[in-house]
Amino acid sequence: MKKMITLVNLLVLATLVFTACGGQQSPTAVPMEMETSQAPAATSEVVSEPGAWLDMTLTDARSGTSFKLSDFSETVVILEMMDPGCFQCKYQVKEIVAALEAVGDKAIVVSIDVGRKGESAQVKWADENGAVWSLAQMTDEIAQALVADFGSQILASFSTPVIIIDPSGEPHVTDPGIKKSATLVDLVNQWSP
Q1: Would you say residue 43 lies in a domain?
Q2: At 126, is the secondary structure helix, strand, or coil?
Q3: Could you report the per-residue pLDDT of 11-20, keeping only the tens digit for each?
Q4: Which of 17, 156, 158, 181 pairs as cysteine with 98 (C-beta 3.0–4.6 A)?
């Protein structure tokens, strides 16, 4: 498993070197049947089924409560990949705070710390930036499943990855770069019941 994480880290580093942040703010729907060729190939472990990360257990960093992203099937989920040390993440969270104020209970937010700085660092970061929603630490299992579905950039906090999960459980990956609150509001309204 350590080889898997090292490979993922190398892929993220390569993405840092070769990919510029930015891009348009329009969402890109990613089909659940995406080829797993983007998943790390240097391991003999079986790659999880597409969408398996939705049913994997996360632990809320504040309450210690276990949950799965599939538990929120009645609402839109804004899933943010972040790192307490990420400069870009501070800007993205401010946009998410503004969007959440605008959409009310049409959506919930979950932030996953891809930098794995620890629960206390994540909670401190969230409190300092107004993130009052569920927080969780990335696990090896979820990281592998996300990379299998979306490629290694999904774990690159500098590109502020955000996945909008509609009430049917379909993920919609947004473009790299800061997603403005108006864009997030439009996406929530597009997929809210």
Answers
A1: no
A2: helix
A3: 444 444 333 3
A4: 181
